[in-house]
């Protein structure tokens, strides 16, 4: 395959780092055998609930897209080969490779160099039914020194597996918001591979509220020094839901920065969330800074939060590196303080949960989306907090 | 005219070795219009008394009652006690991340009054309450107590005291950790509150310093979980020169 050759040509020249935490990227399906479920990258995922995605059955069904594109922004198409040739990591797992192999080409969102968008790009992707199998391949290309906010809204239902490539040019500023607001029966697996240009500033927000199973893996590396990436997430799992967010930040260049913050709440029997934060600091990546944090608020019995931060360090020269993970119930002190000012217990709990999430939500800077998220959380809470005993 | 009566209050906390009694029969009556100061050494149980009145879940009342105008508030939840007219300014105010001061104050005011405050005047009320305790109006947008300095937390408690205007306030070492300017600001806030004439105050303190600014009607010495002596202002002066030694020794001899 010629594409393989191009990939190699485009790949960052890096030493190989052997690790069970992040497999070798490849477009080749044979490089990613069907998992048994025991593998490090699959062991938290209930494979049976992926509805046969691993069979890789052909489907030409699509999500229906509603697009709101500011001036200068275009939607086009790329052939699979053209997409593979882009300077972004190949898929790290079989689901990513399957999406590319089966999607039959990619949708390209192109934000030209130096563009400063006056409003966010909005893409709403709607699925019509849970048993509709959809393969997705999306490319988001942000030209050098462009400044853009891109909102991707997933609604309706589907069995959807997607591979998304994000190429961020030198000096560009990108806010990418992915909202997983599916109906209860959707299955959504997505791999987002992003390469941050020299001195670029990227923030990726992931919000996962709906769906029977949502599993995203977000893989970031750097095309040059000075890139800064924030990965921010909020998730809320109800009874029976499986919500899994994985990040792999590969510090492939010196003086780069990464900051990962995910916050989740869980309620109801068998609500399950997974957060895996992997950070690799390569030998070349001197003077980098990284921090990752995951906090989980367990609102009822029967819910389970898995949270695993991993930091692999190959260089001795680091400006700062750390991680933290907390999983807990309501803090009695918070509730006592609020109640001691006359605020009823249920209201106090609501304030605490909103406060917990607000920290991330308020950073989006898109008013209507912030309001929508706050009210979505309000709806989630209404189902259970009112009935909670302390 | 209201009365807060603490009668034979016994309180214990759970420890690894079982329940440990901290309050051993506290009797104290406060009427509206009165300022009571409670002074005592570290660990004597002053905060325990304050938290028990407010209903903190860590403390178990094993005997006695606390009556607000004849009603035993020990049967009420924490928020019900606050709505009944009690306020506790805490020794260590709690940080509540992500909840803005503005939102917190409006929610509390709405809960206490039973109706939302008038939007038009409320923002002004909040800003001037903050200003009176020399907190910048930008504090309204910050998370409750988060990253506040020790002194800012205490001043924030006093701003709440003024905005919520309870029948009875318990101030637990609000003076500790304040520099002389902050102490004056806090004392002025407390005096504005008491000068309404129909409010009761229980001022818990470790030092006589604040009593130069706030004039108590009664001073109580608190040692080993109960009141050891009660008197007027002159008792504070005596404590200033003699310390708690005499009382601690007497309590230990029991
Ligand atoms: N969980 C606990 N286990 C054991 N002892 C406890 C516990 N909580 C409180 N105590 C003890 O109860 C006693 C009273 O504490 P309290 O905080 O009420 O004292 P205080 O008079 O407010 O002291 P300070 O002047 O230092 O504020 C102390 O001896 C303290 O160590
Ligand atoms: Mg104390």
TrEMBL record, chain A:
Pfam families documented for this protein: SUFBD_core
Gene it is expressed from: sufD
Organism: Aeromicrobium phragmitis
SUPFAM superfamilies: Stabilizer of iron transporter SufD (SSF101960)
Name the UniProt record assigns to this protein: Fe-S cluster assembly protein SufD
Annotated PANTHER family: PROTEIN ABCI7, CHLOROPLASTIC
GO biological process: iron-sulfur cluster assembly
Family note: Belongs to the iron-sulfur cluster assembly SufBD family.
Domain SUF system FeS cluster assembly SufBD core: 128-356
From TrEMBL, chain B:
Keywords on record: ATP-binding, Nucleotide-binding
Ligase as UniProt keyword: no
GO MF terms held by the record: ATP binding; ATP hydrolysis activity
Pfam families the UniProt entry points to: ABC_tran
Domain of life: Bacteria
InterPro entries, per database record: AAA+_ATPase, ABC_transporter-like_ATP-bd, FeS-cluster_ATPase_SufC, P-loop_NTPase
Domain ABC transporter per the UniProt entry, residue ranges: 4-249
Similarity comment text for this entry: Belongs to the ABC transporter superfamily. Ycf16 family.
Database matches in PANTHER family: ABC TRANSPORTER I FAMILY MEMBER 6, CHLOROPLASTIC
Name of protein: Fe-S cluster assembly ATPase SufC
Lineage of source species: Bacteria, Bacillati, Actinomycetota, Actinomycetes, Propionibacteriales
């Amino acid at each position: 395959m010629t594409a393989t050759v191009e990939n190699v040509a485009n790949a960052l020249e890096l030493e190989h780092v052997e690790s069970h935490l992040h497999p070798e990227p490849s477009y080749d399906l044979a490089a990613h055998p069907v998992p048994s479920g025991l593998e490090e990258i699959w062991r938290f995922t209930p494979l049976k609930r992926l509805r046969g995605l691993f069979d890789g059955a052909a489907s030409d069904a699509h999500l229906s897209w509603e697009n709101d594109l500011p001036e200068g922004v275009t939607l086009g198409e790329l052939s699979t080969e053209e997409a593979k040739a882009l300077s972004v990591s190949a898929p790290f797992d079989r689901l990513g490779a399957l999406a590319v192999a089966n999607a039959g080409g990619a949708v390209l969102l192109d934000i030209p160099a130096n563009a400063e968008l006056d409003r966010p790009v909005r893409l709403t992707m709607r699925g019509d039914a849970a048993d509709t199998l959809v393969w997705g391949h999306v490319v988001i290309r942000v030209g050098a020194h462009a400044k853009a906010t891109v909102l991707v809204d997933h609604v309706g239902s589907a069995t959807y597996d997607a591979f998304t490539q994000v190429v961020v040019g030198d000096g560009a500023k990108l806010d990418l918001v992915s909202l997983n607001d599916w109906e209860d029966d959707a299955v959504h697996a997505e791999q987002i591979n992003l390469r941050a240009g020299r001195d670029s500033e990227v923030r990726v927000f992931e919000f996962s509220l709906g769906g029977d199973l949502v599993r995203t893996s977000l893989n970031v590396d750097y095309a040059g020094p000075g890139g800064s990436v924030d990965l921010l997430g909020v998730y809320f799992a109800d009874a029976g839901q499986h919500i899994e967010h994985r990040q792999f930040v590969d510090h492939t260049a010196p003086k780069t920065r990464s900051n990962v913050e995910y916050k989740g709440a869980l309620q109801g029997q068998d609500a399950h969330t997974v957060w895996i934060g992997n950070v690799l600091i390569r030998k070349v990546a001197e003077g980098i800074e990284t921090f990752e944090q995951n906090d989980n608020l367990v609102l009822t019995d029967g819910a389970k939060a898995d949270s695993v931060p991993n930091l692999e360090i190959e260089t001795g020269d680091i400006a700062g590196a750390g991680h933290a993970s907390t999983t807990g119930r309501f803090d009695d002190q918070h509730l006592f303080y609020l109640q001691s000012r006359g605020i009823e217990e249920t209201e106090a709990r609501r304030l605490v949960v909103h406060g917990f999430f607000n920290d991330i939500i308020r950073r989006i800077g898109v008013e209507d989306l912030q309001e929508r998220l706050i009210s979505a959380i309000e709806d989630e809470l209404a189902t259970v907090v009112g009935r909670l005993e302390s | 005219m209201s009365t807060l009566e603490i009668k034979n209050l016994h309180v214990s906390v759970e420890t690894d070795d079982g329940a440990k009694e901290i309050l051993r029969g506290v009797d104290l009556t406060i009427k509206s219009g009165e300022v009571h100061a409670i002074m005592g050494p570290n660990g004597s149980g002053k905060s325990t008394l304050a938290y028990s009145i407010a209903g903190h879940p860590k403390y178990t009342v094993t005997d006695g009652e606390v009556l607000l105008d004849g009603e035993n508030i020990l049967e009420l939840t924490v928020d019900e006690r606050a709505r009944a007219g009690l306020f506790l300014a805490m020794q260590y105010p709690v940080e509540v991340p992500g909840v803005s001061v503005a939102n917190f104050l409006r929610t509390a005011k709405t809960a206490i009054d039973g109706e939302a405050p008038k939007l038009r005047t409320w923002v002004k009320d909040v800003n001037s309450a903050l200003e009176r305790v020399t907190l910048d109006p930008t504090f309204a947008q910050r998370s409750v107590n988060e990253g506040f300095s020790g002194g800012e937390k205490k001043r924030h408690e006093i701003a709440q005291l003024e905005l919520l205007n309870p029948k009875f306030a318990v101030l637990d070492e609000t003076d500790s950790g304040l520099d002389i300017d902050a102490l004056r600001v806090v004392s002025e806030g407390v005096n504005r509150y008491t000068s309404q004439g129909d409010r009761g105050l229980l001022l818990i303190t470790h030092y006589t310093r604040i009593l130069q600014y706030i004039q108590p009607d009664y001073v109580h010495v608190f040692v080993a979980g109960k009141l050891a002596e009660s008197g007027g202002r002159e008792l504070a002066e005596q404590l200033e020169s003699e310390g708690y030694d005499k009382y601690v020794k007497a309590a230990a001899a029991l």
